[in-house]
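I have been asked to look over a protein record a colleague put together. Alongside the sequence sits a line of tokens, each denoting a local backbone shape. Please read both lines and tell me whether the tokens look consistent with the sequence. I do not need a full report, just your reasoning and any doubts. I have pasted the whole thing underneath without changing anything.
>
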Amino acid sequence: MPIENIPEIYINDKKESSDLFVYDFKMTNDVVKSKVNLGMNMFSFLQVGKKQVHFAGTSVAVNKDQSLLLKKGNWLWTELLDTEAIYYCKLFFFSEKKLTDFLSKYTNNIKPYKEDVPYFVIENDDYIASFINSLSSNTFTNHNFSNALLSLKFEEIMLYMLTKYDNKFEFYLHSLISKEMSPFKKVVESNVNSNLKVEEIAFLCNMSLSTFKRHFTNEYNEPPGKWFQDKRLQKAKELLQGGNLKPSDIYLDIGYNNLSNFSTAFKNKFGISPTDI
């Protein structure tokens, strides 16, 4: 079963704005099971048929009385024809940039939804039905004001969802934001293979040594001295196994002041002297 990259396979003009995109999806063949790499978060407004989706360890099934908001990522989904032998839905894709802009404009800076559920089930009502009818891919292409109009439609459905579901939807939207590495971890992990001392890395993190050690142990469940030593000795082993370097060539770069201390630490960890590799 090939992997479908969505929405890329639906976009004819690759220069088209990648922040918002609408696609009318119709199907008249038998049941289709798909592996989908969803590159953007997506509303799936189902109008005819049934849909079942799987993401990691969870799944959900909806019918024409419901819609879905799906998190970007790898999905398995099955689309089932209706008794009328047709499947029809409108797909509304939006980028993370559009989402973060919306959240900063209209919502509070709250913590992400704890359960981190990858989908949100929407119960369709008269307002949503009217919105779906106004959402057509033909409306938002090749017009001077298409992008501006589509941005308004995005804000409209998002604001209505906040009105309809309140904090539950707001928490879910925050859970869609990628969890980037914290500034603290960026500094730590960019210096794994440096020869900087722990107190020097603490300085780069704008922390006292005691605060740094406490914060580090909370993040990594291990004291920084041992963590850095293990990482750097592993790097030393890899360098020596390359065959082009001797222990005397690398001990300073690994953070040791003399060859003797490096050799002792290496043997304690791996059971052999670095000269034996």
The chain has two domains: 3-175, 183-276. The CA atoms of residues 90 and 133 lie 9 Å apart.
